[in-house]
Write a structure and sequence with these properties.
Elements (H helix, E strand, L loop, with lengths): L1 H32 L3 H18 L4 E3 L8 E3 L4 E4 L1 E3 L7 E6 L6 E2 L4 E4 L12 E11 L5 E11 L6 E2 L5 E3 L5 E4 L6 E2 L6 E5 L9 E2 L4 E4 L3 H9 L2 E9 L5 E10 L7 E5 L4 E5 L4 E8 L7 E8 L9 E5 L2 E6 L12 E12 L4 E11 L4 H46 L2 E6 L4 E9 L2 E9 L3 E6 L3 H4 L4 H28 L3 H4 L3 H12 L5 H4 L13 H7 L13
Parallel strand pairs: 2-9, 11-18, 20-26
Antiparallel strand pairs: 1-4, 3-7, 5-8, 6-7, 8-9, 10-13, 12-16, 14-17, 15-16, 17-18, 19-21, 21-24, 22-25, 23-24, 25-26, 27-30, 28-29
Helix pairs in contact: 1-2, 4-6, 6-8
């Protein structure tokens, strides 16, 4: 306590001397450069505050704007990181983990990124991208900061290619279906419907949501078509965001008829899909007699585990097949499984149309369960380190007490020793002799000695101070080693992607070797010791600052 008080007094005296010297320099400087004393005082105060900041630990300052890390797709995010504290004002920044190709980040802390539209979709509306920033200076001081960018899905409107002309004939109900599969595109892969523009439609024509245009022109209308083609405009609207794009259709006089069809998007009869991957097919149904003539649309599969709920009806003429084979669909030892699905349509006249699609389901690793398993190993290692540090802390306190008690024992303990030599005693014995008794007396002689002396009690009775000091130093050294290597392990494998690498198992074994103690018997650690503090994620994070709990991505 006296030494500490002396250091404080010495610091105060140095500060007082520094203040007097600063005032003297200010007066001379103000006279030489003719600058007001208040301005120079402000400059010196600013410099002194900057110097005081250098004594603080280095830390990264994030932007203060609300929801600054919530970024819509296609929106440019740009900010500059700052760092405070440290022994050097020259801070260099870099991205330690999580950098994507589109991210730009220089050593001055300037970050710029425009998230691609493919990061999120209409099913996963929000995706989290984790980036770890690192700042360091020339004095080997460094700090990391984890930032979770939440990328919001931004819908893009559909667009329409050039359509093939609609050829109609006189005295006939002409039917035309806009090719939504190949002529209408949506980058978000959203289902689209057609919305007619009423004032663009010829009299008697009807355009439904599936893009089916029906029209039986009159004699006058047909004659006008023969002399001049007709152009009509319409909207295509994606679902469910209702974004629109305008299309244009040319109508000419002809005798072409449209056969009934089942159109599949994507236009393919064979697909490969991994387990737990979502397969999405869109079906557009057409009937020359009109939409009302369609009675049934369904499918049959050669594998009974293909669920009927995978076929979703959006409109009477537009369906979706959304199927996600589970991780148990392909069972070991198979590496793939072929499935054939036949989609069929039946109208009211019992006319039937079919479309066969073959799927090959590939066996895949359950990434979610694998990540949970790797995280369990990651957390278990840090939990063991947490408990071992707590036990070593308790042992440190016990060794302190034993060391103080052992030092006191040299002064206060004494030893009493007693030795027994020969003793002297008398005994009478009656011995018969010739009919009469004789009396004999036997004697034994000797000495007894008692000694009281003071010994080095800690070396004879108590514990050795040297042994206690060796064990105390070993406990301190082991605590420091486990803490430093635990911090490195927690920071290096804080992300899922880093735990998936091959180095994780090797580093895990190395960290476990670090926690092995030598001389367990000499340390006298209790095998039944239980930690009074529960190893929760928050408790582990207080010991190992870069520990990152497992978080599941949520969809909003």
């Amino acid at each position: 306590m006296n030494k500490k008080h002396g250091q404080i007094s010495e610091t105060i005296e140095l500060n007082q001397i520094y203040g007097l010297f600063l005032r003297f320099v200010l007066k001379i400087a103000s006279q030489m450069i003719k600058c007001p004393l208040k301005i120079l005082s402000f400059v010196c105060l600013w410099v002194s505050q900057g110097l005081s900041q250098e004594n603080k630990p280095i830390q990264i300052v994030l932007p203060e704007a609300q929801n600054w890390n919530l970024v819509p797709e296609g929106t440019n995010v740009r900010f500059r990181l700052r760092a405070l504290g440290g022994k050097d004002n020259k801070i260099s920044f870099k991205i330690a983990q999580g950098q994507l190709d589109e991210m730009e980040f220089d050593s001055t802390g300037l970050f710029e990124w425009t998230p691609d539209y493919a990061l999120a979709n209409r099913i996963n509306l929000l995706r989290t991208v984790t980036v770890i920033f690192e700042a360091h200076n020339a004095h080997d001081e460094s700090v990391t900061q984890t930032v979770d960018f939440k990328i919001q899905h931004v819908n893009q409107p559909p667009y329409v290619d050039d359509l093939r002309p609609f050829y109609v004939q006189y005295k006939s109900l002409n039917t035309y279906r806009i090719d939504l599969a190949n002529s209408v595109h949506d980058d978000d892969d959203d289902p689209v419907v057609v919305v007619p523009i009423t004032d663009q439609m010829p009299e008697g024509a009807k355009l439904n949501a599936q893009g089916e245009l029906t029209w039986q022109p009159s004699q006058i209308q047909f004659n006008q078509l023969r002399s001049r083609p007709l152009y009509i405009e319409f909207y295509v609207e994606d679902q469910p965001t209702k974004a629109r794009a305008k299309g244009r259709l040319k109508i000419e006089a002809t005798q072409m008829d449209l056969p009934p069809t089942i159109t599949v998007v994507p236009n393919n009869d064979y697909f490969k899909v991994k387990e737990n991957a979502t397969l999405n097919l869109k079906f557009y149904l057409a009937d020359p007699n009109g939409d009302d003539d369609i009675a049934t649309f369904d499918f049959v599969s050669d594998n009974q585990r293909t669920p009927k709920s995978a076929l979703v009806k959006n409109t009477p003429n537009q369906y979706e097949f959304i199927w996600t084979p589970g991780y148990d669909f392909v069972r070991d030892p198979l590496d793939s499984l072929a499935v054939e699905v036949t989609f069929f349509i039946i109208d009211k006249s019992q006319n039937r149309g079919e479309h066969r699609v073959q799927f090959t389901v590939l066996n895949a690793v359950n990434e979610v369960e694998k990540d949970k398993y790797l995280y369990t190993q990651y957390r278990s290692a840090l939990t063991n380190a947490f408990n071992l540090l707590s036990q070593l802390q308790d042992k440190e306190e016990d060794l302190k007490k034993d060391y103080r008690r052992a030092k006191k024992g040299k002064r206060n303990r004494s030893v009493v020793s007693a030795s027994l030599g020969a003793t002297t005693g008398l005994s009478g014995v009656l011995v018969p002799s010739g009919g009469s008794n004789r009396t004999l007396i036997s004697t034994i002689g000797g000495t007894a000695v008692a000694t009281i002396g003071t010994l080095e009690a800690t070396e004879v009775i108590g514990k050795s101070t040297r042994d206690l000091l060796d064990r105390y130093n070993y406990v301190l050294e082991k605590k420091s080693e486990i803490q430093s290597k635990g911090d490195v392990f927690a920071r290096e494998y804080a992300l899922k992607s880093t735990r998936r690498t091959a180095d994780f198992a090797r580093k895990l074994d190395d960290f476990r070797v670090t926690m092995a103690l030598k001389g367990l018997v000499a340390l006298e650690l209790d095998a039944s010791w239980e930690n009074k503090r529960e190893a929760t994620e928050k408790a582990i994070q207080r010991i190992f600052k870069d520990f990152s709990p497992l978080q599941e991505e949520t969809v909003k």
